[in-house]
Amino acid sequence: MSIFKTKLALVFAMGFASQAYAVPVPSFSGTYDEATGVEAGGDYDNIGGVSDVGDFSLVAGVNTFEGSIFTPGDPADVFNIVIGPNQTLVGATLVFASNADAFNPFFGFPSPTWGLYESSVTPVIFEFKVPDSNGQYSPFTSTQTFTRGAGIYNMVIGNGVFGMNDGSPVDYTMTFTVEETQQPAIPLPASLPLMLGGVGVLAGLRRRAKR
Fold it and tell me: What is the pTM of this model?
C-alpha cells in the first residue's frame, strides 16, 4: 500500500472518511484473494483510484480475505466491509505469516497491527498487535468476538517494519463471520380474507347483472 493510502486508512479509522472514497467490489461473493481478484489486480491498494477504498458487501456465513504485506514495498492493506440490513457481524479471525516455516521465518520489529474501526467517537472495534519476532517459524493467529449491525466498517492491517527472511511478502488470511436474520412474514389482517371474499361476491353479482 502507498504511503497516501496508509494515511487514508488512519483517516477512516478516526471516523472522518467520506463515502466518496468507497468503491463497491461487485465480484465478491464470500471469498477474495488480492492476488487473483479482478478489481485488486494483485493488491487491495489497486481498487479504484489513489484515494479510493474497496467496499466488500459481506454475505451470510464466513467471509474470507487473503492478501500479503511487507515493508517497505507494501506496508499495509485497507478495505471496507459492509454489513447489510438483517445482518449481524459476530466475529473475525486472522492467520498472519501463513507462509512462515523453518526455512523462511517471519521477522518483525515492530510487527504490524490488525484492526477494525467504525465511524464514531470511539472508533476502535478491536486491534491486535502481531507479536514482534526474531524468527517465527509458524503463523500467528487471532480470534476476535464482537457484534455489530448494519453499517460500513474499515479494516486496516499493517504499519511496522516486517517481512519474511527471504524478502518475500508476508501472507495472511482473515475471516469475518456474518449471521443473517430473516424477517418474519407479515400476517394478513384477519379482515382481509373476508374483504376479498366480499369483492368476489360483488364481481359475481355484476356478471349476473350483465347477462
Answer: 0.80
